[in-house]
Amino acid sequence: MSVKVVIFDWGDVYLDWKHKFWEIIAERLNVKIDLLEKEVQKYWKLLGIGIIQDTEFWKKIGEGLKIKIPEESEKWIEERFDKDFSVNKDVEFIAKGLKNHGYKIALLSNTEKTSLDYGKRHGWTKYFDVVIASCDVGVMKPDLRIYKIALQKIREKPEDCVFIDDKKAFLETAKRLGMKTVFFDNHKHKISYLKQELIKLGVKKEAFNN
Taking the model in full, what pTM does it have? Predict the structure, then answer.
């Protein structure tokens, strides 16, 4: 078995995600969390594939909830990353070790532009040779097209790639293309499990000795 590329998902894999932000916004807007989440789900994909940006997103949320959204909402998506996400240092350490041992490292994420830009500014993408974000390519996982775009950008055969994600449905599409996959959620699995799974798939043990 050969592995040339390790592809990471972002939230709950490479990044720790507290999943608290929408509760904060619901309190700020004085609305019920379930009503807010219902409106968010209507427009989140449009934001995630870059069709709308933050201002229009919040405008639509306000219209759906029949409330006035404060002007500072323009910064709320960035605030989401500031308050809700941080790099998982153990996973980052693995990515660094893989890169140092000659593996190509990639990110494949459903994410909006403001969050991606935030991550880039704060060095959260520094070990990635290739970044494939839904907001840049106009399509989201588990759509087959984003995986094909990823392979084009990575320039390696699917059988030489390992894709790590915390959603099984997203892994299934990768499998259909011939990629190796690892189901990993950094809230549920130990980092030793991720190492073991990567070694099983053909990653050299030395890659974990930075």
Answer: 0.94
